[in-house]
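Quick one:
INPUT:
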């Protein structure tokens, strides 16, 4: 029982932020604090009674303007496992359809006594805008092609869990870099923790100035494959493309798809990540997605621990009372 109520040893003094908007703005120490706090939360989901009291009496709302399976469900479970009351706001059936603005909608929800709002929006910067208008904590669950900080954190957490470190690893981010918020959050987080990051994709899907973030750029997966300890296989974001950015899906798969033959040419213990949803047969084959190198479902499991850590750090009580 004491274990349930004890604040994490690692929910430490370095944490002073109210919002989580991106990994670009976090320091190395803040990222490590989230990862270390998440370590404490991993076992909660393995218990018979999956409950803590860190957020008892708090109210957490998910406000999603884009589809989601993993992130929305994961934040909901994370908040409830920490004892919060949760609500899932359905943008499609809200008064936004009657002309209410995004900010007015959010302010009206906040007026019902909200402690944290988790927002996904197709416009980059939408969570940042909300953070300037709301008093509650704002968590970015994906803003356009900008950032998806909890996905970046759970990817990094999974790499550290399996490889034992981040520093010195070579991580390849493969695919649609231009439209990927996951790529940006991975880049900021991994570089701060000392990884070498190579982005790789067709020239039409790799921004010309991406090297300014501190990454290396490659256009041929087979050139970088033997050097990578980790490959994060990004989804082709068909919904954000105007089309015509590569000749065909078959051509894309031939040059950038992960299949059994490519795995044989990679490092023996290469770790494969994919943020999901995956397009089987486009970015990777089913045998690779479900094979021994893949940590795709482990990422989802770890996502819960990471989101519990984020919620506890942003709006948990220092000493939760039962
Ligand atoms: N990885 C990810 O953000 O998945 P969802 O779109 O299902 O939330």
């Amino acid at each position: 029982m004491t274990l349930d109520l004890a604040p994490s040893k690692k929910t430490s003094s370095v944490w002073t932020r109210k919002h989580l908007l991106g990994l670009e703005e976090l320091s190395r120490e803040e990222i490590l604090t989230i990862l270390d706090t998440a370590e404490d939360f991993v076992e909660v989901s393995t218990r018979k009674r999956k409950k803590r009291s860190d957020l008892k009496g708090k109210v957490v709302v998910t406000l999603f303007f884009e589809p989601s399976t993993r992130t929305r469900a994961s934040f909901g479970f994370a908040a409830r496992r920490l004892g919060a009351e949760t609500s899932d706001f359905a943008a499609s059936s809200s008064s936004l359809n009657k002309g209410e603005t995004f900010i007015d909608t959010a302010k009206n929800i906040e007026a019902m006594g909200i402690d944290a709002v988790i927002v996904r929006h197709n416009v980059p910067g939408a969570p940042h805008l909300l953070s300037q208008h709301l008093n509650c904590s704002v968590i970015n669950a994906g803003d356009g092609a900008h950032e998806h900080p909890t996905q970046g954190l759970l990817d990094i957490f999974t790499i550290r869990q399996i490889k034992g470190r981040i520093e010195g690893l070579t991580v390849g981010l493969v695919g649609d870099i231009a439209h990927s918020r996951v790529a940006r959050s991975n880049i900021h987080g991994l570089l701060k923790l000392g990884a070498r990051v190579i982005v790789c994709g067709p020239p039409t899907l790799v921004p010309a100035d991406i090297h300014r973030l501190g990454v290396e750029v490659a256009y041929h997966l087979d050139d970088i494959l033997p050097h990578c300890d980790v490959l994060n296989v990004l989804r082709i974001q068909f919904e954000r493309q105007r089309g015509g950015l590569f000749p065909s899906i078959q051509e894309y798969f031939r040059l950038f798809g992960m299949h059994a033959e490519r795995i044989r040419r990679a490092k023996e213990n290469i770790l494969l990540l994919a943020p999901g949803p995956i397009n089987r047969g486009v970015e990777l084959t089913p045998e690779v997605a479900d094979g021994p190198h893949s940590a795709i479902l482990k990422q989802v499991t770890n996502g819960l621990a990471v989101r519990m850590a984020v919620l506890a750090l942003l709006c948990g009580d220092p000493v939760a009372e039962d």
